[in-house]
Please model this.
Amino acid sequence: MCRAKGVNFAEVLQDPSFEGHRALYWVIISRPPPSHYGLVSTILKHSGPLSPEAVAEVRLACLQAGDQTLFNYLWKHPAYGALSATDALLLGATSPTDCVDVQETTSDEVGAFVARFEISQFHKRMSVSGIIMFEFIARGSYLR
Model:
């Protein structure tokens, strides 16, 4: 229907016209369980590469929801654009296979958490580009 009317559906999905936010923001805030990421996937698939503003809003929504699992899922999606161009060439993939597992501790230390990283082809990527970027949420903070 959008195509027939000359409307760019990706632009509609990335337009902050729903109470000042994008559709993806509201889906994230509703915190779907991991077994129900279908709507999230569909919106990402049809949004095309997310604009920098949309990526910032994804981070904000995941931070507000406190949902690292969902953020990790979104971060791996090709539309999110987490891989650098160099990493995409080296890995031959459109989405990162890297993984970060964040566990909040019961330590009395303020802001304490444990993060475990699985990095595909770490040595090769560090040799070529010298940097590997990760993003995650822990203890109510966005970390990069």
Notes: Residues 52-65 form the longest helix (14 residues). The chain has seven helices and four strands. The longest strand covers residues 99-104. Residues 9-143 form one domain.
